[in-house]
Write a structure and sequence with these properties.
Structural class: alpha+beta
Helix content: 40-55%
Strand order of the largest sheet: 4-3-6-5
GO molecular function: isomerase activity
CATH topology of the largest domain: Chitinase A, domain 3
Shape: elongated
Organism: Methylobacterium trifolii
Low-confidence stretches: 1-32
Oligomer: single chain
Pfam family, one: Rotamase
Number of strands: 8
Number of domains: 3
Number of helices: 9
CATH architecture of the largest domain: Roll
Strand content: 15-25%
Enzyme class: isomerase
Keywords: Isomerase, Rotamase, Signal
CATH class of the largest domain: Alpha Beta
Length: about 300
Amino acid sequence: MPKTLPLWRVSALALALAVPSLAAAQTPTPAAPAVAPAAPVSPDAVVATVNGSPVTAGDLAVASEDPALSLPGVDEAQKKALLVDYMVDLKVGAQAAEAAKVADTPDFKRKLAYFRDKLLLDEYLEREAKKAATPEAAREVYEQTAKIMKPEEEAHARHILVDNEAEAKKIAGRIKGGEDFAKVAAETSKDPGSKAEGGDLGWFSKERMVKEFADAAFKMQPGQVSDPIKTQFGWHVIKLEEKRTKPTPTFEELKEQIDQHLIRKAQQDLILKLRGEAKVERFDAAGKPVAAPAPDEPKKP
């Protein structure tokens, strides 16, 4: 589906949005009366007809899922009116295309077959994959993952970054002499990302930092200030605030990722199963049979 609205859609929606806005600018808005919750609407409820062809509430629901028709910031009543207008235009255009025999062209039939297959596959994969993302399956994946997760050490540190060793030594001396690290960092550090925070880097694992910095920080004790440390970025003075073993993420923290993993795996397994059960024949440009690529061999376009 297109990510942007075609010009005719943009014009229609812009006009529909602009007219109420102009009226609202000239007329005071009365306080909205209390409204009872709307009763559920049947998908078969007719909201409009176009030359006798119905537009239903179910049609509007399908259209509202089209990313190209996203209407953020529009209230539900206005959104419904805009979608009805769009569906009327769609029906009018489709009826004109039918009359012009567009649907009878080979090119259209190929496109229709392609998008029908694609929509069928998407719906089928979504339906089947949801069966795999059960609470029990998610919990099992979490427990298996938690067993093999190694405890990870993290450090919470501050640093001051300068250009040369002499300046770093001078700064280290000031701090070891009793000056406040955060205050000196705000005055002297060349690191724009942490300077305003008094050099605070927050919590980090060893792998997140360059080797020289990480080696020094993780050897220190809380409260300790380092001698100058050289890295590819310059010279650092480090103060270690705290150390901890990173806690294992909870099931609730990982559930969304686990569900996505289960869905993707179920979809992949299903496609591989269907492909393995199907009789597939491939042909070259001359119509001669060709061998299928080996499983570990990338397919050529």
